[in-house]
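Support request, please re-run this one:
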Amino acid sequence: MTTVERPDSRLMAGWDVLASDGSVVRIRPVRADDEAALGAMNERVSDRSMYLRFFGISRSMADEHMHHLVADHDGHVALVAEYDDRVVGVASYEPLRPGEAEMAFLLEDSVHGRGIGTLLLEQLAATARENGVERLRADTLAENAGMLRVFADSGFEQVRRLESGVVELVLDTAYRPSTLERMADRERAAEDRSLHRVFAPRAVAVIGAGRKPGGIGHEVLRNLAGGNFTGPVYAVNPHTDRVGGQPSYPSVEDVPGVVDLVVIAIPAEQVPHVLVSCGAKNVAGAVVLTAGFSELGTAGQAAQQEILEVARRHSIRLIGPNCIGLVNTDPAVKLNATFAEVLPRPGALAIAAQSGAVGVAVLDQAGRSGLGISEFVSLGNKVDVSGNDLLLHWWGDPRTAVIGLYLESFGNPRKFGGLARLVGRTKPILVVKGGRSAGGRRAGASHTAAASTPETAVDALFAQSGVLRMDTLEELVETARVLAALPLPRGRRLAVVGNAGGAGVLAADAAGRLGLELPELSDAVQSELMELGAVGSGNPVDLGAAASPSSLGQALRLIADSGEVDSVLINYAATRAGRVDEIYDAIAHSAAGSDLPILVNCVGALDAAPEIVVAGGRRLPVFPFPESAVRALAHAVRYAEWRARPQGAVPELARVDAAGARAVVRGFLDECPEGGWMDQVRVGQLLQSAGVKAIPVTVASTRADAIRVAKSIGYPVALKTASRTVLHKTDIGGVRIGLADQLQLAAAYDEVTTAAQDPDVVIQAMAPAGTELVIGVVRDPLFGPLVMAGSGGVLTDLLADRQWRGLPLTDLDAADMVRSLRCAVLLAGYRGAEAADQTAVLDVIHRIAWLAEQVPELAELDINPLIAGATGVFAVDVRMRLAPASPEPDWYARRLRS
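Re-run finished. Output below.
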């Protein structure tokens, strides 16, 4: 099970990571000017550590090794770790033989036990893997328990052999499921330590707390005091000695005692200086409310980068800038570090919003509906703390049961998807993604690229990671109410019961649209319902307008205990026959002990409570409309199904040749450094390296050549233009199929070359009959490679029957793609037709995904059509475009900046 995006070493400028204690460490490749810094580190290394590394205490040997690392030498790789503006560790490997290298590590004693060696190992293995090194070797003294523990805890597969007090270790650089999960666990622990003092500070200082009510700093101070924050709150204002009736200090350094969190509400140009003072005070986190940073353009971006660099130097976590603050409703904390007027009650929903106004709207709607909040974060410009960081933080938070996000952009979507797959196994993630627009359509030449938009990438990401995409904020709150209050549905069977027949019909209509089932209840259950006053039979169950609270409660208990449904929706219109409080009591009594999700739609009672409390503390959400209740339940059903399914695995493929694929790419880019559309010969070679069967193509440049080739192949044949400037051949009449003899071929050659204004054509044998599919790849600059499967041939753009997924692509991901296509019924054998070999179709999808992973230069790929028949699948027409690979942001590189 591949769960988390692997590191990627191509980002060579260096990246910030979290050590196990939550402090910020920079890892980067060694530079030629690092020799002095490495020598200084050697001086700080104890004799004991020097002995364990070099099997002796020769300082000159260590200095010689450091000189070697910074020298320009083919093959070896070295990474350094920086902390507190000094080099504190180095990791390196030296090639031994093809596929193998020897690794070594040295850390100064002051940072032992902080996980820096593990971080260096993770990135060194990533670099080695990308450079074709499959195994890293190390000889370590058996008494070097610390380093052996780093290797053992890494999650990498390894083999050890002890001889004469030396452990000979061989580490496999491949990313196994255990490796990736260990990496995620380590990051979660580090994130918790890094953010603990931010969300649960012992003391808070408001920098820029003005004397006049209405000012941002003043209102934050009031909210902290009015929310009964459990620690001391300090005002920082150099122009007065009192704010709001309490002492004010000229600087955060003048505040007595510890300060864990500062809220900054001062002009943007003053923020860097204030952060320096915060670093001197050992502040853990800063909420920067101030605007005037990246939202203003280039100048603002430079100012934002400056405050980030200052915060990094002092291991200060930043929320914002340009945000409204932070809330933690934990009774042991009671932190309201915002200037909003909304004060949420404690609950199970954690919310992060990139827009402050949207965040306030969610808090307000949650409060109106009775939904409590565990924590709220206004992300603002996301200079540091991001949605990905909060996923890790809330993953282990016992008070958070549901996570809601409003996002307008992704800093590192591949990391988000990997984390969401992990977090979603225990906590649902609901996202409203702003910025949907047809204007985001990608400019591309292939069918795949033209069909791809930023929204297709987002939908693919969410589909694979189990994220529930919400269209509106109201929908997010409604769905969160269901997921926070109820056991998950075990299936799609819904019973609708109540005294409001019309509301029952609306609920049934909504259920049908959203894929829920309203099964017919058994004769025995229907008979008992009739005795309770049910009008007719069937589901929805209409108890009649005069139904009493008692009859409603009995009907609910009967249906819930029947075992014939997976959830129940109660529609009740308040009448003189039963007051709302009596209705609520009857429902609460009957719901006690039931393990089914139960939702309530109460009509005609404007002052009705938004939830019903059942014995034991369970809360049943009450909705004003039946459609909104069904919609929220449908999301819960979809999430439950995703969580219950196996996680899948990326298949191990036979008949693939990574080295051969790289050789083809190098050859093409040597000729065309800027990239471009590949010739058919090289396209065939790349397909062959991936093990994809294709109908062979032969290029001809004259009519005589075309006739000779067709004769050698055997009629009937297909003829197509080979022009690289023609992207959609059929649009210009550049394709002729079923050519039965030489006369037809000659005429087709003249017509096609005239239409394309190019003498080059390709000739193929006719493909066997089958369903036409399109399989494609497009490389998104943020989301990475996206794989597409859909209806192919001339129907590709007309039907727009497509499914998208990102990498890594598991067996379940690929199966979901094919099963979700409208043309899936054709593959299964429609109206007596012979079924296609769907296993072969899935195999091709995985091989194309493998090719996209192995060839980062693959910008676009189209197989259109891929003929899927009963005896196999065949690629008929294939186009590929290469482009020089740009560094892809790895999930570690962006963990503090995404």
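The two ends are 25 Å apart (CA to CA). The chain has a mean pLDDT of 88.
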